[in-house]
């Protein structure tokens, strides 16, 4: 009977091949049906591996389960990528069909043969006009952003200048107070000197009076 050790390398190889096939589907080299068949085989082998791992030794079972889980995640991822690609391709085809129906309703079947070409030109012109308008709007937004940035810079400069002015005014206020204190101290010193001179003259006059 097949064991996990025998089947797991084959399953990993199949998953690797399907990765390449999914990329080839995206560029149109491989049919999606073939990849879906391969994914079905991959999922079948993974299911068998889940059954076989129960027969392995308990010590090795956890390691095998982890590797099988990685393969299962890879299979889910590949199927998701393929489904999304097919949905996107179907949406593109539906949009192309709707455009053709719109042109047919607009110009009628069997009418002017140049009408579809003119319609395409009109659509291209509308797209170009939209792009020009978008570019103009981007320029306006960038200009507004630059103006706002300049205003913010000016506001920062004004705040800095205001702070400097306040610092100077505070410094001048301190200097004014210090000057006033010095002037008052000078006046007091003059009064003390004058008083001392008067007392000295009085003492000398008294001494002279006593001697004479």
Brief overview:
This is Golgi snap receptor complex member 2. This protein is mostly helical and 212 residues long.
Overview of the structural elements:
This protein has a domain at 1-105: Methane Monooxygenase Hydroxylase, Chain G, domain 1 (Up-down Bundle). Helix content is 91%, strand content 0%. The chain has helices at 4-26, 32-53, 58-107, 115-211. The protein is elongated, with a radius of gyration of 48 Å. The relative contact order is 0.05. The mean pLDDT is 75.
Instruction: Give the class from helix and strand content and strand pairing.
Output: mainly alpha
CATH topology of one domain: the name is Methane Monooxygenase Hydroxylase, Chain G, domain 1
Strand content: under 5%
Principal-axes geometry comes out as elongated
- Total beta strand runs: 0
CATH class of one domain: Mainly Alpha
Average predicted confidence as pLDDT: 75
Under the CATH scheme, which architecture of one domain would be assigned? Up-down Bundle
- Number of contiguous helices: 4
**Which regions have little confidence, pLDDT < 50, spanning 5+ residues?**
none
Radius of gyration using CA atoms only: 48 Å
Helix content: over 70%
